[in-house]
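Hi W.,

Here's what went into the run:
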Amino acid sequence: MPQAVIVDYEAGNLKSVQRACHEVGLDAEIVADPERVATAERVIFPGVGAAGSAMRSITRRGMDDALRQAFARGTPILGICLGLQISLDHSEESDTDTLGLMAGEVCRFALDDPALKVPHMGWNEVRPVRAHPVLEGIEPGDEFYFVHAYYPKPRDEACVYAVAEYERPFACAVGMGNYFATQFHPEKSGRVGLRLIQRFAEWNGTC
Amino acid sequence: MLSKRLIACLDVRDGKLAKSVKFVDTKDIGDPVEKAREYYADGLDELVFYDITASSDRRNIMLDVVERVAEQVFIPLSVGGGVRTVADATDLRLAGAEKINVNSAAVQRPEIISECAEAIGNQNVVLSMDIRRVEPSTALPSGYEIVINGGRKPMGIDALWWAEEGERLGAGELVVNSIDADGTRDGYEINLTRRISEAVRIPVIASGGAGKPEHLKEVLIEGRADAALVASMVHYGDYRVSELKRYLDHEGVKMRMSW
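Here's what came out:
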């Protein structure tokens, strides 16, 4: 059975991620010890909440270095939602400097249509723009569950693997080498979300 | 493009499914975990559990229901009913609820909204409002009043004002529940839903009165709701979740159609 650790840094409901992993046969353990994250077979880096407090919590726990080490070792890493956002360099949310695993920034939705709500909350179509093993099997019309007010903007266009549309297209799945991350919540996205987690469980970290 | 959501609400009393009609005479109609699984398999977008258990010492039963559902149902799960403290909210979150609904407690002590937002994130705090129609007055200029305790106690608070206040205090979403329409199956309160949806920037869930598929279309288009909540319509087998979604999709309402 493949194994993973779920990074615990007081940011959100990790148990729902864990339950989804178990459902697809990925043995995932919620882990607060940075040493175990640094040396894990696979890492899941979820999170909901605010970028500023999340970064403080990560740094205090020594998880920032642990994640950088795991990334450098070639460990397959799956970021989810805030886990994606704080992997970039900087977030507009409370003007926060973040981990910088991938070059880019996180911006707040600035929408022209006043009828569009923020947060962007609900199901939206995820359209792959580049092949990636973790996204394999997504069909046109497949929707995933989103809830966020900020969206990622990687500096290198080639890091964008899928987009979704909210007035304009925005990056909703990004990746670089052994790191892959989604703005949506695969653990709350029904069958298609579970399949994505399963693909991650099988992924060797290359693309 | 973001889809509109179809949400099913399951009222739970002592761990069993119940459905209220005009908030009186509730009767049990089955096992909530079974129903949740059935709707999930049939394409439901989100689930709400409303705990109407009278005595607070039986609340652990609800945590158990939430836990069992969260193990099998991989869509957003929202829980409300009797949430009075941040500890209530975090207990339910640990059991597997994504979002927490606050209602009466927030009317009596509005800070609970900010406290929950701080503890579990704005996007996970849903302000649920029970609203009845009244003659417009100086105190209630919109002609809609907030009521609590299952619709029994009028509060003299204007519903439109409360919706905006809830957003300001940090709610991530609103449930607009019309007491007048609830259980009638005559359709949602379109005017109320639309006025609130246009007044706030956060998503609005329309609740109360759904009886026919046309009612859902009406509230999602004319009522400007982001999501429609159904209960008895699907609980008694009159309509299937997938059937409602297919109808809405056919009528041009953007829905999630693959699951």
